[in-house]
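Q: Could you fold this chain for me?
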Amino acid sequence: MKKDICIRPYRKAILGSFVFLFALFFVYAAGKGGFLSPHIADAKITPETVLSNNEETVFDKSNPQVKRVINVHDRHNPKLMANPDVVGSGVGLTDDNRPAIFVFTKNRVSSGLVPESLEGVPVVVMVTGEISAMPVQADLKDSQRSVVRINPTSFFQRPVPIGISTGNANECSAGTIGARVKDINGNVYALSNNHVYALENTAPIGSVVLQPGRYDTNCSYNPNNSIGTLYAYEPIKFDGSNNEIDAAIALTTTGVLGNSTPSNGYGTPSSTIIAARVGLPVQKFGRTTSLTSGSINAINATIKVGYGSGTATFVNQVIVYSPKAFIKAGDSGSLLVSNDTSHNPVGLLFAGTSDGRWGIANPIDKVLTRFGVSIDGN
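A: Sure. Below is the predicted structure, expressed as structure tokens.
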């Protein structure tokens, strides 16, 4: 008994010291920097940083992660595009929000033909089928004609809206008026594609541009349908060289061409353009499918596009995806704008897949810079 009585004070001292040390440890751990405190990470971002889906991150070319993946994509792109089953490649996002290299193919490819990753960057394969320019021409089958809706293909009182049927008087075809644009001297122009207004480099400067295009007047020519004349176009190269835009402008007037879509469209585009970014909701109004919406699937894309004159390679393109048809034959030349109240122009649509779910657009800044014009909008 005496022994126990003598030991008991030591036990109390030891226990008290333990409690004190544990309390001190808990205060430190729960304090700033402790492992029990709310997590505080370094605020800087590196190319290797994996971002949370909850972060408000803009995946455009200024994003450091996207920049790194673009560099990797550009290094390996020639080899990817050399595969005969590959129609395009670009930079997009995986389901868990990681920048990745997207490879677009005609058909499902066998395992191993496309690498699963390149320099640590994931590679995602998407089967799109072949990609082609999107005019509507007189040799289309009746089944393709049935998709045409009545309003955008008809004759409109002047000034005509944007987003409706147009074409060069020298061919029975039709595309879409993308926008009204203007230069610093006050001249205004109708913006569309080369293959709509310049007929794949073959139409002479000064040739008549119509609304509607001759495809929508049973291939007949009516001089009263004139809205202007071909003023300039960027030639499309079919020799294997790279292209950036498929675009042309026709000289017109504000009395002949308005700057808003028909009433069932998105209205007037903004005069302020924005850069494409992955995931951006977008919309367009076109001659065939009218108002459709989708989202940007990839940027910095290289795409092989089929034309009547051959295949042309385009670089630095914007790819749009929609679960439903977004672009069909006749929608070529439609202006791609943000799907919000601002309607900021993003690109000029010119090509797509046969099912219409994938659309290809030139970055709008490249188009406007080429002709020295701006969007004549809000």
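A (continued): The first helix runs from residue 2 to 30.
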